[in-house]
Amino acid sequence: MITLGHYLVVSGMLFALGLAGVIARRNIIIVYMCLEMMLSAANLALVGFSRFHVVNGLPDYTAQSLVFFTITVAAAEVAVGLAIIVALFRSKQSVDVESVTKLQG
Amino acid sequence: MPPLLFYFFALITLGFGFMVVTGRNPVTCALSLAASFVGLAALFLSLDAYFIGVIQILVYAGAVMVLFLFIIMLLDIKTEEGKKLNLPAIVSGVLLAVFLTLQIFMVAGSTDLAGKTAATAPLALAEASAKIGKAALPTITKDLKAGELPDAKLIGFTLFDQYGFHLQVIGLLLLVGTIGVVVLSKRERSPAP
Fold it and tell me: Which UniProt keywords apply (chain A) (predicted)?
């Protein structure tokens, strides 16, 4: 039988995969994709908790509202982030994270 | 949902997620991410979150991935072949991921909520319609009495009933994001004389 623990483990593994990608990859676009994966992993945990925390015989819709807000914020974040990447590519001609070290001092 | 289907979609989600992290070609990574999101949407459907599952496909696998592919092809990014791998970063990333996964395995089983299944936490739709009573819209109670879960209606009801202000803030955020994108992608003019 599939328990909430199963969903939490899948969510955690997806988050760990995204984290590994953010740390290990150098292509800034792929770093962004891994960030999206981490956000979705959090969404999966939220929806899981929502389904198994039954209120009045219905899933807890507060959690699903939070997922709705998360997805909206993620969409806005992708739009702004990709605009920044395009501006970065214009000035550096590269999408390598190591080409941007101006703030490193 | 039968356990076999859960494992199948979990495998799709995690397998394509792994391809995103390891792929050398950005286009392959973007398409793998779209496939991974479709698997995730199926997991949402298995949790009776139909609205969120559909939104996941429409917004993530649709809009966001098109944006990613558009940027990848616009910038004409070549594959990373020929560049040497950043070994310390890869080792630390993998170690951190393995550590986090082990930690989650240990924590996920330890809460009392974690053992709940669809059988031990059943949805009681007919009972819910009586409990919600007059607080809900008639269309919601009608669906509940008919034994259907009016998922989108209930989310909309929750959003507009309890989180109306937050919804407007999110709308403002989208407006600010749109303006920010326009400002960012405007080419800088040479300074006025």
Answer: Cell membrane, Membrane, NAD, Quinone, Translocase, Transmembrane, Transmembrane helix, Transport, Ubiquinone
